[in-house]
Design brief:
Structural class: mainly alpha
Number of domains: 1
Low-confidence stretches: none
Mean pLDDT: 93
Strand content: under 5%
Largest sheet: none
Number of strands: 0
Shape: elongated
Length: about 100
């Protein structure tokens, strides 16, 4: 379970970073400078990380015995900027085996 938790924390970090880069750098460049290059570059990796985050959240919720409410918060956090960082700090960082 610790390997799975470590992998989930890494995916959460990368998903959060890719989302922030997409929202606050790539999209403004696309619409402000009419250059969609960065959205194309970051879009697919972010999408894959987003899906991996959702799947891993559901999988790990059973191991950590999360309530439905906690799982819902973790899933919603994936669509809120900086949300995955909150989940890591509040629910994942201090988990003991």
């Amino acid at each position: 379970m610790l390997k799975q938790l470590k992998l989930f924390r890494i995916i959460a970090l990368l998903e959060g970073l890719s989302y922030i880069l997409l929202l606050f750098i790539a999209v403004p460049i696309k619409y402000g400078l009419d250059d969609p290059q960065f959205v194309k570059l970051l879009g697919m990796p972010h999408g894959l990380l987003f899906i991996a985050y959702l799947i891993m959240a559901v999988m790990i919720s059973a191991d950590l015995k999360w309530s439905n409410k906690t799982l819902f918060v973790a899933l919603v956090a994936s669509i809120i900027p900086f949300g995955t960082f909150y989940i890591d700090k509040k629910y994942l960082r201090n988990v003991k085996a």
